[in-house]
Amino acid sequence: MSARPPRVVGRRGEIARVPFSVVNPATEQTIVELDEAGVDEADQAVARARAAYPAWRAVAPNDRARLLRRLAALVEEHGEELARIESQNVGKPIVGARAEVGMAADVLHFYAGAVDKHHGETIPVGGGVDLTFREPLGVVGLIVPWNFPLNISSWKLGPALACGNTVVLKPAELTPLSALRLAELVLEAGIPEGVVNVLVGPGRVVGQRLVEHPDVAKIGFTGSTEVGRGVMRGAAGTIKRVTLELGGKSANVVFADADLERAAAAAPYAVFDNAGQDCCARSRILVERSAYDRFAELLVTATGALAVGDPADDATEMGPLISADHRERVASFVDGDVLFRGDVPEGPGYWYPCTLVEATNDDRIAREEVFGPVAALIPFTDEEDAVRIANDTPYGLSGSIWTENGARALRVARALESGVLSVNSNSSVRHSTPFGGFKQSGFGRELGLNALDGYSEVKNVFVAT
Ligand code: NDP
């Protein structure tokens, strides 16, 4: 165990090089300048993780669980500080950031508790005894996007460490600050130096290096489908394990027999939370034609009531987008029948208004992931039509079904090609339940006990008796 300060690659004065600015998207002001890591630093981070691996995998399960619990407790203890870091760096409302930090702590507690519950079995065979073991993989590379930096880091870090792996965590260059603080808390918790390494550098350089590095056994990736495709290709050279959590174009399916008031009140949060920068965003709102006009009216009212503004304000429900480039991309989607466009604050910040567009499922806005506060309203005729439209997308991550008919809810849930669904709710993630996509939304499951399978190998041993 070490009480020394963290060796965080990317910190000024450490072993990194090119300086770059980390910006607050709500003010466009620089929060801090960091130095960017390159291929050499990526190799050094992998070497440190590799050196730390034998000792970490040998830590007794109880002790590993204790260390993870300490880390979870430190995340709770520093909850307000971490939430402020995340809110400033991502531009997300502080109330949402607090909830995300709370979830990160829950995730770490969950995997601390899982360390000694994820085990092998004995299998009846002839001539002896057959045993299976859950073995760690070795060094794993964790590549995390900018939309939920701390939360998604915890989803990968928790199971990776619980299984006995060491890690190199690469946050998005736009949002490295919560991962850097987390690295300090890792050491404060008593987790040995080298077990968790944070690497701040451009994805196409250091991310790519992790993907191709012969000493990295697995990549846990969350990000765009396009980069995910490259990760899969790059991992093929070393037959690396990959978990891919990619984009989405999820449907919020509202039947005429739903509680329309409740569905319309909830729908804005299903797509405008985190300013729509959410892979689970239900950005296609499918409404049964007989209820369409009434629902659209309720939805416009509910969307207009969203509080957009200063992320530091407890009352704020939506902040700015992550960057000027991203705002330009989001704006490029809006050219159809705009049903509603909200207001945004004046002055600096990468603001984009909540926007509702009437569309068909063939329009670009309904085909591609916008990743901004823009939703497409699409009518359907009956249940069969709803399922057909909802499934008519290359993605399959999340979705919601609103109906008061229980049999229909289950029928439609079984028919939708999607990994995470909710009925009469927007909920997508809980620390104890599996999360991940069908089709081009990726494969492998995060969260819940399922994630442990992605960070371990099953070893089968036969003992002749
Ligand atoms: P990316 O897929 O580009 O980035 C995700 C992570 O991958 C970041 O850490 C990034 O690093 C890293 N990365 C980038 N290129 C490579 C590479 N060649 N090899 C390995 N790692 C790499 O997503 P963006 O942040 O650019 O967002 C673009 C779009 O992706 C969004 O508009 C949205 O559609 C989707 N997206 C989906 C997310 C989800 O939760 N499913 C999350 C984020 C984005 P760095 O940023 O430092 O270059």
What does the model show?
The structure is a single chain. This protein is an alpha/beta fold. The protein has two domains: 18-246 and 441-464, Aldehyde Dehydrogenase, Chain A, domain 1 (3-Layer(aba) Sandwich), CATH 3.40.605.10; 251-431, Aldehyde Dehydrogenase, Chain A, domain 2, CATH 3.40.309.10. The protein is 38% helix and 20% strand. The chain has 15 helices and 18 strands. The protein has helices at 39-58, 61-77, 79-90, 94-114, 149-162, 177-188, 203-212, 225-236, 260-272, 292-304, 324-331, 364-367, 383-391, 406-415, 450-453, and strands at residues 18-24, 29-36, 122-125, 128-136, 139-143, 166-170, 196-198, 216-222, 241-245, 251-254, 284-288, 337-341, 355-358, 374-380, 399-402, 422-423, 442-443, 456-464. The strands form four sheets. It has a seven-stranded mixed β-sheet, sandwiched between helices. The chain has a six-stranded mixed β-sheet with strand order 7-6-5-8-9-17, sandwiched between helices. A three-stranded antiparallel β-sheet has the order 3-4-18, with no helix packed on it. 54% of the residues are buried. The model is unreliable at 1-16 (pLDDT under 50). Residues 143-147, 170, 172-173, 202-204, 207-208, 211, 222-224, 227, 230-231, 245-247, 279, 369, 371 line the site of NADPH dihydro-nicotinamide-adenine-dinucleotide phosphate.
